[in-house]
Amino acid sequence: MGKYQLFICKVCGDPYLGIDAPSRCPFCGAYKVNVVPVEEWGPLWGKPIDEVSRKHLQEALQLEVGAVNFYRNVSKNAKDVWAQKMFKALMKAEREHAEVIVKLMGAEMPDIEGLETDKDKARESIEENLAEFHRREAGAVEAYRMAASEVNDGHVKYFFEELAKIEAEHLLLSK
Q: Which among 3, 30, 78, 160 is least buried, having the fewest CB atoms inside 10 angstroms?
């Protein structure tokens, strides 16, 4: 049996205590390869970013904030436990992504609920909510892949590459 130790996610920076690294970061959903012993970790944030990175990060923050609000609303309005829990878990992951984006920009976390729009309201049926979920996640994957191909800052490129993988996995929930 291994030693109980501290692991840190290279994507979100959140700590995990355990004998082994989890198969996914329990906070942001990053792959196991990103959850490393504390001695191997260094934050992605606190480094300079250029205007191209800043533009893509601001766009990503808008996507994540919208997703948090939509998933929160769906979770609160869902009639079955499966939908409540799934959308609550997605809301938490998207909020984690927003927090990392803000750290990368060196900014303050916005009042996410205060930024809710009519587009973030839950739909009438679970089928409509799943379709909207799929549309949002597919759009995020496309946006993050494009951002990764356009940014020059290596640490921001890495973040967008990993975020695109995480969001692509979310799409599997709508199949």
A: 3
